[in-house]
């Protein structure tokens, strides 16, 4: 996979992260949203490690 | 380093004493200036506030979701806090290794592990799920029940220490009349906790007993699963260069070793661990880089022959440097010997003395003389030492379910 494709993936990862952080902000303290958003963010971090952090090294 | 410097009193003090700030690290070469952390240092800071982790904790205590501790093989156990993100990262590291060993969604993975405060197979469990395997937790079942469950469910893969892999095969044959290679469907075994899966004779015994490929992996509670054997079995372990910075250092001088064929100790940084960072952790594992690329195609570097010993395990007996794994390699290479043995080093006057306790398989007792001659010759050849050999009745030496303690150096205790 080339740098261009990795950048496209990175853009989508950023979108997921932004949307998840917005979810947390809008949750009004609803536990079901907060706890699942936390888990999404942990998974997003793994996407960042595997894609975003290395996109410019290829 | 910046993360730890800003949040952990322990790390900040360590770096300040070395005259370093995060901004001082500008190149790959600069990393060697960062002081190493040893397990003994972690012992010193724990059991204090924030309880029980002490000053190296980098997140608010309420963000810690996982407690694990080391097995205490070398002293007081060390506690390891992890956040949920850290735990995702643990599973990610294990997912790398399991996928490399051929684990796929079609696998039914049996985990014959007493789920508890130790981390290894918890991470294997979660990583198997992450890959999409079906996971069968073999928790509190006894060995016989585990074997019968593997048979009942036609499990295709499992994870255990080498000692337990061999112990299960013995139990299956002798108590249940089950030949694992013929009657069970396990075809992949991932080992952890002991070096056996990288010791050729021990690996051969396991693969023959189970009719399965046996793969090694290496890791530690404070670090993560940093190295693994892939399905190409290249005679060594890949280091996970994606999630860890793995450096090999000369044991005496601390010089970074980049060239193949020269032994050193592994110093590791886990790149994304946040609750209790792992920065230049002195693993004490002794290894050397391989010069050959792996046929699997991965570009992750390979340590030849896996971890060949621990810097604090390699000991001098009668003036000869020896790693306990060398004795295991010899004992397990001799067909008539059981899997169990004990090597005990004592001092008689000023002289070192080493006794090797072994068991001969009941069906091989008629060949005892030839087996003992072969054993003494191989020990002399491979370890340069003479041993007092004691033959003990079959099944009389201790059996282990987790990490075996077969090498006992009693000189240190007077």
Structural summary, described in words:
The complex is a heterodimer of chains A (58) and B (414). With 58 residues, chain A is an all-alpha fold. Chain A has a domain at 1-26. Helices cover 76% and strands 0% of the residues of chain A. In chain A, helix 1 (3-26) runs antiparallel to helix 2 (31-50). Chain A starts with a helix and ends in an 8-residue tail after the last helix. In chain B, the strands form six sheets. In chain B, strands 4-3-5-6-7 form a five-stranded parallel sheet. Chain B has a four-stranded antiparallel sheet with strand order 8-9-10-14, with helices on one face. Chain B has a four-stranded antiparallel sheet with strand order 11-12-13-15, with no helix packed on it. Helices cover 28% and strands 24% of the residues of chain B. Chain B folds into two domains: 85-310, 3-Layer(aba) Sandwich (Rossmann fold), CATH 3.40.50; 315-413, GMP Synthetase, Chain A, domain 3 (2-Layer Sandwich). Chain B has helices at residues 2-7, 9-17, 39-45, 84-100, 120-131, 143-153, 162-176, 180-183, 200-210, 324-331, 368-383; strands spanning 66-69, 79-82, 108-111, 134-137, 157-160, 188-191, 213-215, 217-220, 224-228, 236-239, 244-249, 264-270, 281-287, 302-304, 309-310, 315-317, 320-322, 337-348, 351-360, 388-392, 407-409. Chain B is globular and about 70 Å long. The A-B interface holds A 38-39, 41-43, 45-46, 49-50, 54 and B 83-85, 87-89, 92, 242-243, 271-272.
